[in-house]
Amino acid sequence: MTFPEWRQLSPVRAAHEVHERVRTRLAPGQQRAAIASLLDEPALAARIAESPPTSPLRGIPYFIKDLFPVAHAVMRAGSTFLPEVRPTPIADSTMVSRLRVAGAALAGQTHLHEFAYGITGENPHYGDCEHPRFPGRVTGGSSSGSAAAVAAGIVPLAIGSDTGGSIRLPAAFCGIFGFRLTPRDAWIGDAFPLAPSYDTAGWFTENAEDMASTNAALLGMRRAEREPRGCYLEMPGLDADVAHACAEAAVRFTQPFDNLSRSALLSAFSDSVDTYNTVVTDEAWKTHEPWATRFHSQYDPAVWQRLNRVHTITTEQRRAAVLATAEIKRVWEEYFQSFDFLVLPASPFPALPKLECTLVNRARILVLTTPASIGGYPVLTVPVNLPPGLSTGLQIVVRSVDSPAIGWALKKFKA
User: Is residue 388 packed enough to be buried (19+ CB in 10 Å), middle (13-18) or exposed (0-12)?
Assistant: First the structure.
């Protein structure tokens, strides 16, 4: 249902609808994999009823990724031991507080790839989060539970975070809309960190109209005074059907690239994955170091391996990351002197089966997502359909969260 349809329900009916959809649209194992907590029906109905009648998101239930503090609710961040090393939050995060003011009602928390340090949505503790329409294929991560909740139609809005693509990839895999904000802003400042240089907050909706309503309510949206200008940059490593579908979708609202600008971006972006991995490993280790050794055996082995890479990073690699970051930021700034947005593919393939969640495919994803992460830019992700019912997406990278290009682009993708 859309935002207007949810608003037509009474608070009691809306709360019941959320619970009924959890029960009927997610198999029992997937309920555990996606949903970390769910408010009981009477409490959720009361929360929905508290929304001021004139608030822009009145009557809209939502889930939030379990790394944003919720007052008096246990935070696990996809792990089993975080409550042992960090106290239960006593206050709501900025995200929860602002959504309450906007009228949205928090229904519960969603699971994630452990500590947000992964992009597939696999989690050995609570279960791998699967695509609601394609069992056996992952939702993408790390905001896996939030994406699943929207893609399954359980709620029309869910909150996630995005460091290296954790909103963009699940949106593409699940055929929904996603929006990531900017690093070090108030929206992400009190969330459990992965890598503060790149961590951003954001959200998912099922359709373009609801995304526009969310952005307007929480950020404000400037109207375009002229036709926004942008280009599509086809990146290497795409499956053939994805390359074709993304190019066809992008041509509707982009213009051709000149060879010089295209070459400059591709050259700078070629170092983005190594740069991203170096910075994230260093920053993540700073957070986990106080308890990492003690809880070594309780980490997801894949997450532990990523954290433990810190001991192999060389001074030369760190120096190279600093230089590459400066160059990537420079070419982004140069591009935005002439254009309002850049369009990139959001995934090189549709949602992966579990057996194809390999390191090679992880690297193929990061080639597409890390340039915007390093640049620190907001990104709107819009779905692109693939046969037979699968999807990929386009990343629409803009300079600021209130860019007029966002609303303009959403109009292009209304159902």
Answer: exposed
pLDDT grade, residue 224 (50/70/90)? confident
SS3 209: helix
Q: Which two tokens stand for residue 151?
A: 């893609």
Please give the DSSP secondary-structure letter assigned to residue 2: -
Strands 157-162 and 200-205: antiparallel
3-state secondary structure of 233: coil
Amino acid at 106: L
Residue 3 has pLDDT above 90, yes or no: yes
CB 150 within 8 A of CB 205: yes
pLDDT digits 0-9 by tens, 68-119: 999 999 999 999 999 999 999 999 999 999 999 999 999 999 999 999 999 9
3-state secondary structure of 107: strand
Beta-strand relationship, 61-65 and 105-110: parallel
pLDDT at 415: 53
Rounded Cα distance, 137 and 71, in Å: 34
Of 3, 364, 326, 373, nearest in space to 157 by CA:
3
pTM of the model: 0.97
Strand partners, 63: 108, 158
Q: 142: cis peptide before it, omega within 30°?
A: yes
Residues 6+ apart with CB under 8 A from 272: 324, 328, 366, 367, 370, 371, 373, 374
Q: What is the pLDDT of residues 352-366, one digit of tens each?
A: 999 999 999 999 999
Say if residues 38 and 160 touch (Cβ distance below 8 Å). no
Cβ-based neighbour number of residue 193 at 10 Å: 22
Q: How high is the pLDDT of residue 357?
A: 97
Q: Output the average pLDDT for the chain.
A: 97
Q: What is the set of domains in the chain, with CATH numbers? A: 1-270+320-415 (3.90.1300.10)
Q: CB of 335 within 8 A of CB of 343?
A: no
Residue pair 153/161 in contact by the 8 Å Cβ criterion? no
CA atoms 126, 131, 136, 138: torsion sign: negative
Residue 83: what residue type?
Answer: P
Residue closest to 196 by CA, chosen among 187, 204, 205? 187
Give the pLDDT confidence of 363-402 residue by residue, as tens digits: 999 999 999 999 999 999 999 999 889 999 999 999 999 9
Q: Are 129 and 141 in contact (CB under 8 A)?
A: yes
What is the pairing mode between strands 200-205 and 177-180? antiparallel
